[in-house]
Structures are given as structure tokens and as C-alpha cells.
Design goal:
Layout lengths: L9 H26 L1 H49 L5 E4 L5 E4 L1 H7 L9 H4 L16 E8 L2 E11 L1 H5 L12 E9 L1 H12 L2 E8 L2 H6 L6 H18 L3 E6 L2 E7 H9 L4 H6 L11 E6 L5 H17 L4 E5 L4 E5 L11 H15 L3 E5 L6 H16 L3 E5 L8 H4 L13 E2 L1 H7 L4 E6 L10 H6 L2 E6 L13 E4 L6 H12 L7 H14 L9 H12 L4 H7 L4 H12 L2 E3 L3 E6 L7 H12 L7 E8 L2 E8 L5 H7 L3 E2 L3 E7 L3 H17 L4
Parallel strand pairs: 9-10, 12-13, 12-15, 13-14, 15-16, 16-17, 19-20
Antiparallel strand pairs: 1-2, 1-5, 3-4, 4-5, 6-8, 6-9, 7-8, 10-11, 18-19, 20-21, 21-23, 22-23
Helix pairs in contact: 1-2, 12-17, 13-17, 13-18, 17-18, 17-19, 18-19, 18-20, 21-22
Length: 683
């Protein structure tokens, strides 16, 4: 073997160097002989002697050097094998099926398996399935996070091809062979993750606490005891935050800034923000319990960004009616609480300010477009008519976007169609609205603050000036960059809000009887004939409309049902399933009904008349979607239930839409949601 092995590269040059010198010496000898023959003879004798010694050493040392090289290579391979075996990083070789072929000592120590273990890697790490291992592609490198016996590892996989080795084998015929091995390295990152978690837990979280009904609560207690009530609330808040190793600083009479570690926020989540309930326990004779809202900002890139998140979170909490906590991060918004009814504000200062702002916006534009939510209801259309009247009073061209006229809205729409007192283009479609919209157009969105369910979401992008008027609680999805936003969850209906705005927008504004009927109808429907969410301002708005020509008898006649709708509603009520003793779940048959979702909502209202029912849910299969109407009186917040299912609404009136879901599956999802929230104490 040694005779057939030839040297090359630098070692060959090194060993042949003496021969190259001998050739140079021959040339020198020839030159010397030409100058002096005697001297040339002497040099020639030296040259012969040099060649004899050099060639003898060359042929003698070559086998010895080859021997040493082969010995070194063998020993080097053994050393490498021993080093790999004793390598501190867990290392293993797998075959192309994922079966373990070879492991080093560190790998055996991690998996607690002896040398020679030859089962699939999946038996050790179930998360490493076959589809995560290399395939027949040329190169493959991947890494996966995995947990094993309480430690966290990064597993790196690398493909090692055996094709070239097999093709040059003298023992096997490997034509077309594409075999490979898989090298696996395990890097223990447990300590790193613990350190990162500790750093993350110590990061700053900014929060804000607002007392929702501070002024109203103070008015309900004797004047001499008000300072004591304030002191008790301050003490409750400061003591609670101090126990979390945080700082609470009072900014105003009803506002606090809090600084906490992120670790404390996890504890607050675990306790489900019981500070909300603790504040309510402060009672020194006040008739009204004090409720609070909490907004927290987390995981921002800077402290300033966390503060901005906290501001946004507290705005969301207040916009949803207060008495709840909201946590905002760059990726998500989480809600906690929100079980109590909203407190009605007796003052109309806010309504007056918003009305003046709306007037300024409308007068600065040439055209007003009003739209509500998809599958418009009476409140949506009635409030749109109110905005239409404001625009007309301010001598601006106005349009109402309405694509599909439901059975509930049709009696109201008929009041305006073919009516010579109103323009033919008063009611337009989405496409017509897009064509009419321009830079000098203001879009007023009523009875909805979720852009995806508006009558025409594209209009929000076309119109630069947007006004939002709504009485539903705000969710994660909101209309951004609105020029004016007036969202009041305590209001009974959008028609109530627009009726108030009407009184301040224009002095001695005249409302036609048709318009008054529409807005009065919206209040009636959303309050279930003044039995739900009705406050002092609700009756004041109704009285204003009554003075302007609204007729209760005429409105009642507008909403008489036909026999098929009445029968469908009765069937939904009679077939209701009482779940967990307090939840009525039923299905509304959509066949032969023009607007089955409206009938479903009415059936949900009827189910609340059953004694012991805290919340009702009616599901309707309509146009390939499952519509869920949820209603309650005051004991259950159906909004947070519907939010879990992708919807939203009010505490007592909410709903959701479910795509690609069957009726039976939707009922199962609803029941599972109720079970989960009951078990966690969320409802």
C-alpha cells in the first residue's frame, strides 16, 4: 500500500528540495568546468558524493515518513473520536428514518439512556415528529425549541450526505444511492431563559387608575363625610399597589398613575384585578358604590411607549363602560372585569361640546354621508336620519348609506322613499357613496365603532374626515384616526345620543314627524319598550322627540309583525334549552323569513321573561353564517361572552357572527365558552 501512496503538496516539495538543489549544483559544476577544468573535476566529485548521500536518505526516509503519517492519522482519528465522545455538548447521529445510531456521553446523560440506544428520536422528544426531520433535499439545517424533564433546549439538526462515500466503496454497489445521516446537537438554554424571564419580570409596567363615578358617589354622601370617603379610597389604592412593590401617585382627584414590575402584573391577572372589587367595598353611607377602571401598558420599546399604551388602555376601559381593567401590549389587548352596569351621567356638558364640534366639522364640508352597521336595525337607521336632519339644517347635502333593507327597517324606509319632502338620493348604496365621496366630504358613522361591520368599510379609507357616534362598548377593533369620536356606553341607544346632539347643534331646529318617529322607534327597540338600559336622559330624549311630532301609536303600528315572523319567534322561545340552570339557548329557523337575525334578537329578548334566566342566546343560520344574538338583564355581561367568540356589543345586548361553522358546532362552542368563563369566575 505504501508503494502506491504518493506524496503531494508542501510535504512533497519539502522532501524533493534537496534533489532540486542537486540539479542546481550540476549547473554550477558545468560553469566551473568551463572556467577551470581542474576545479570542475573537484566540484564534480563533490556533486557525485552529494547525490549519493541525498538519494540514500530520500529513499530510506520516505517509508519512515509515510509510516509516521499513517500512524499520526490513525491516532488523530482516535483522538477525534474520543474528543467527540467526551464532548460536553449533547450530540447524536440518526439514520434517515430518525432512528438513533450513535450518541456521545453528554447526550446519554441528558436522555438517561445507555450507550447503544437505537430507537426513534421521537420516542425521546415527542415534539420532533417525522415531518420535522430532513427529506431528500440537497441540504437541510433546522433548529427547534423543546422541553425535556424541566429543561429547555434548542435542538439543531444537520444533514450529512453518504452518497460520495457509498459511490467509492469497494464492498457495496451503491449506484443511485442517496443515503444520509442526521447530526443532532442539543444546546441547554434553561439558564438563559431563566435569566431572560427574570429580566422581563423586572421590566417596567405603567398603569392608570380612574374612578369612574367619583362625582356621583360624592354627591350621594353627606358633605362632612366626603373627605373621609376620598381618604379611604386613596388608602385602599395605595395599600394595594404597595403590596405589589409598586408606586401609586395621585394625579387628579379621581386619577392615579401607577408604576409596577411586570411580575406584579402577572399576579394581578391571577387575582383577576380584585382591586376593582375592593374599591367597591368602600362604603361610609354612600348610596352609590365607587367603581374604578384600570389601564396598563406593557412590553413597549420605551417607557414612553408603555405610558402611551396605558393611556390607550384606560380610554378603552372607559369607552367600554368602566369597572374593568385593560392590558395593552404591542400585540394584543386583554380585558378583565366589566360585570357592573354603566353609571348614567346626568350632565349634558359632553353632549353639548360634541354637538358644537360636529357642527364645526359639517359646516366646513360640502357633503355629509351617514352610515351604520351591516344588516341595519331601527336604531342604526333612526340615528342616521337624525344626522341627516342636522346636515339639512346646516344646509349641507346629505346621504344615508343603506344596501339591504331588512323587514325591521322597511316600514321606516317607506316613510322617506317617494316622499316629495326628501331628495331621491337621500338613501344610496355603498358604490354610490364611494363615487360621491371626496376630500370635502365628512363621513358620520352611527351605532357602530367596529370598522369591519360597517355598511361600507371602504368608505372609511376614502373619507379623510370621519365622525363616530355610538353607544356600544369599544373593543379591540376600533375606527382609527376619527376626527370626532363620541362613544357613550351608558346611553340606551344611538338615537338617544343623536336626539341630544340635535338640541345643541342648531337653535330651534325643526324635526319632521317622520324623522321623530324614526328616532323614537330606535329608542323603543333598543330599550325593549323602555324596560332595559333606560335612564333619565332616555326619557328626556323621548320627550324631546314627542314634542317634535313623534306618535307612539303610529310607531307601534309600524312594527307589527306578520304571522310567519311571529310564529318563528314563538318556536324559538318554546324550543329553548336551559343550560347550566341560568342560560337559555335556542335556534331561530331562518326559512321563509326576510330578516331572521332580527327575529332571533327579538326571541332572545323574550327568553329573558322566563324566571331564573340570567342570559339568553339565539342562534340563526343565515346566508352561510351563524348569527348569535345574546341578551341579559343585569346579572351577566353578555358582551364579554360574545367577545370571546369574536363579537361584541353591550353588557346586556351583544352578538357575534361565525363563519365556516355549523349550527351544532356553534352551539358547542357557545356552551364551552360559558363553561370556561363560569369556571374561571369571569361571569
Amino acid at each position: 500500500m505504501k508503494k502506491h501512496i504518493k506524496l503531494k503538496g508542501r510535504i512533497k516539495t519539502y522532501l524533493s528540495f534537496t534533489l532540486y538543489l542537486g540539479a542546481l549544483l550540476c549547473a554550477v559544476n558545468l560553469a566551473v568546468a568551463m572556467v577551470d577544468l581542474a576545479a570542475g573535476g573537484i566540484v564534480a566529485c563533490f556533486t557525485v558524493f552529494y547525490f549519493a548521500i541525498t538519494l540514500s536518505l530520500y529513499f530510506y526516509n520516505k517509508p519512515v515518513i509515510m509510516n509516521e503519517l499513517i500512524s499520526f492519522a490513525t491516532e488523530y482519528g482516535q483522538i477525534q473520536r474520543r474528543l467527540l465522545r467526551d464532548l460536553e455538548i449533547p450530540y447524536a447521529l440518526l439514520d434517515d428514518t430518525g432512528k438513533v445510531v450513535w450518541t456521545n456521553t453528554a447526550f446519554e446523560a441528558v436522555v438517561h439512556q445507555p450507550k447503544g440506544y437505537n430507537k426513534s428520536i421521537t420516542s425521546l422528544f415527542p415534539t420532533i415528529t417525522r415531518d420535522k426531520l430532513p427529506d431528500d433535499s440537497e441540504t437541510f439545517e433546522a433548529q427547534y425549541q423543546l422541553e425535556y424533564e424541566g429543561s429547555e433546549y434548542v435542538a439543531k439538526f444537520k444533514k450529512i450526505s453518504l452518497k460520495e462515500m457509498a459511490e467509492h466503496s469497494d464492498m457495496i454497489d451503491a449506484s443511485g444511492y442517496n443515503g444520509y445521516l442526521i447530526a443532532v446537537y442539543l444546546f441547554d438554554e434553561t439558564a438563559l431563559h431563566i435569566a431572560l424571564k427574570e429580566v422581563d419580570d423586572q421590566s417596567l409596567a405603567v398603569g392608570m387608575i380612574y374612578l369612574d363615578n367619583y362625582d356621583e358617589a360624592l354627591e350621594s354622601v353627606e358633605e362632612v363625610r366626603r373627605s373621609l370617603l376620598i381618604a379611604l379610597i386613596d388608602r385602599k389604592v395605595n395599600k394595594y399597589i404597595s403590596a405589589m412593590d409598586g408606586i401609586a401617585k395621585k394625579l387628579e382627584k379621581d386619577k392615579y398613575l401607577i408604576i409596577l414590575r411586570k411580575k406584579a402584573i402577572a399576579e394581578l391577572k391571577e387575582n383577576r384585578f380584585d382591586l376593582l372589587e375592593e374599591v367597591k367595598t368602600v362604603n361610609i353611607g354612600n348610596e352609590m358604590a365607587v367603581t374604578s377602571s384600570i389601564g396598563i401598558g406593557l412590553d413597549g420599546l420605551t417607557y414612553a411607549q408603555n405610558y402611551e399604551f396605558a393611556r390607550n388602555a384606560i380610554d378603552l376601559a372607559l369607552g367600554r363602560g368602566g369597572d374593568q381593567a385593560v392590558i395593552k401590549t404591542p400585540e394584543s389587548i386583554t380585558y378583565y372585569g366589566g360585570k357592573s352596569q354603566q353609571v348614567e351621567k346626568n350632565t349634558r356638558v359632553k353632549a353639548r361640546v360634541k354637538a358644537h364640534a360636529l357642527r364645526e366639522i359639517i359646516t366646513s364640508k360640502d357633503r355629509v354621508i351617514v352610515m351604520g352597521h351591516r344588516i341595519a336595525d331601527v336604531d342604526s337607521f333612526g340615528s342616521a336620519v337624525g344626522i341627516y336632519r342636522i346636515a339639512q339644517a346646516l344646509e349641507r347635502k346629505a346621504h344615508i348609506v343603506l344596501n339591504d333593507v331588512t323587514t325591521s327597517v322597511k316600514p321606516l324606509v317607506d316613510l322617506f322613499e317617494n316622499n316629495p319632502e326628501y331628495d331621491e338620493d337621500m338613501i344610496i348604496t355603498s358604490q354610490e357613496a364611494i363615487d360621491l365621496a371626496g376630500n370635502n366630504t365628512v363621513l358620520v358613522v352611527v351605532d357602530v365603532n367596529k370598522p369591519s361591520i360597517t355598511e361600507c368599510p371602504e368608505l372609511l379609507k376614502v373619507c379623510k374626515s370621519v365622525v363616530v357616534l355610538d353607544h356600544h362598548r369599544q373593543g379591540t377593533e376600533t375606527i382609527e384616526n376619527a376626527t370626532l369620536s363620541y362613544v357613550e356606553p351608558y346611553a340606551s341607544s344611538a338615537c338617544e345620543m343623536v336626539s341630544e346632539i340635535l338640541q345643541y347643534t342648531y337653535d330651534n331646529i325643526k324635526i319632521r314627524s317622520e324623522e321623530a318617529d324614526c328616532m323614537f322607534s330606535g329608542i323603543m327597540i333598543d330599550t325593549n319598550n323602555f324596560m332595559s338600559k333606560t335612564g333619565v336622559r332616555t326619557f328626556e330624549a323621548a320627550a324631546f322627540l314627542r314634542r317634535n311630532g313623534a306618535d307612539v301609536t303610529r310607531v307601534r303600528k309600524l312594527f307589527r309583525e306578520d304571522a310567519a315572523e311571529y310564529k318563528a319567534k314563538a318556536d324559538a322561545v318554546s324550543q329553548a334549552d336551559i343550560y347550566r340552570q341560568h342560560f337559555a339557548i335556542s335556534v331561530c329557523n331562518s326559512e321563509e323569513l326576510y330578516s331572521p337575525t332580527i327575529i332571533g334578537a327579538q326571541a332572545a329578548n323574550e327568553l329573558l321573561n322566563i324566571r331564573g334566566i340570567k342570559a339568553s342566546f339565539v342562534l340563526t343560520d343565515y346566508q352561510g353564517k351563524i348569527y348569535v344574538s345574546a341578551r341579559s338583564i343585569d346579572e351577566v355581561n353578555v358582551q364579554i361572552i360574545m367577545e370571546r367568540m369574536g363579537g361584541g356589543g353591550h353588557m346586556t345586548m351583544a352578538g357575534c357572527q361565525m363563519d365556516n361553522t355549523g349550527l351544532i358546532e356553534a352551539i358547542g362552542i357557545l356552551k364551552h365558552t360559558i363553561d370556561t368563563m363560569l369556571d374561571n369566575g369571569e361571569i
